[in-house]
Amino acid sequence: MKIYSLVESVKANGIDPLKYLTYLLDNRPSADMSDDDFERLAPWSNETRKACEL
Questions:
Q1: Cα–Cα distance measured from residue 12 to residue 29, given in angstroms and rounded to the nearest whole number
Q2: Which pLDDT score, from 0 to 100, does residue 1 have?
Q3: Which residue, 3, 14, 8, is CA-closest to 51?
Q4: Are 4 and 12 within 8 A, CB to CB?
Q5: 5/21 Cα distance (integer angstroms)
Q6: Tens of pLDDT along 1-54?
Q7: What's the burial of 11, exposed, middle or buried (CB within 10 Å: 0-12/13-18/19+)?
Q8: What's the pTM?
Q9: Phi, psi of 53 (to 5 degrees)
């Protein structure tokens, strides 16, 4: 169910779900990431939107 919610959030932000999931895996979180690093991976982040536009 969590993946479905993530995909729906991605679509609601005008992002291609496959591009986003690929982007997320390419930039996957690590233990030493800061809160700002995590925020940049969010579907509503401007950086993410530019990388994953429909």
A1: 22
A2: 63
A3: 14
A4: no
A5: 13
A6: 688 999 999 999 999 999 999 999 998 878 888 888 888 899 999 999 999 887
A7: middle
A8: 0.79
A9: -55, 150
Per-position DSSP letters for 1-54, written without gaps between them: -HHHHHHHHHHHTTB-HHHHHHHHHHT---TT--HHHHHHTSTT-HHHHHHTB-
d(CA 31, CA 19): 24
Task: Decide if 34 contacts 3 (C-beta within 8 A).
Answer: no
Distance CA 39, CA 54 (A): 20
The helix-helix angle for 2-12 and 17-26 (nearest 10°) equals 110
